[in-house]
Amino acid sequence: MALSCELVWASTWMEDANEAIAPCLGLPRLPVVKWPDVCSEDGPRGLRWKTRHLVEWANRRPFVRVDDEISAMDRVWVAAQHPGPSLLHRVDPAEGLVDADFSALADWLRAAALS
What contacts 24+ positions apart, CB below 8 Å, involve 33-38? Predict the structure, then answer.
């Protein structure tokens, strides 16, 4: 599938994702979001530690986060703190990415490209 965005690993696996996961998915080597050395749990209850860092990394650019750990507080916080378009798409960890997920992501990317 051709993407109208930059695909990066935002996984705590960091560079290991390129070695262990990418080949299984048929993905090329991808850039990796660098996580801070200290991950603060400060913030509203239910806000995942990755969320603030990803919003900072996105730097006002549109972004999609696909994760099995997305909370209602993550959605509220991103809506309030990120001025650009964003999609936080939760994937069921028991199923992984399924056709419906790919359709939702493709629909969002198409709509974002038109705006």
Answer: 33/8, 33/9, 33/57
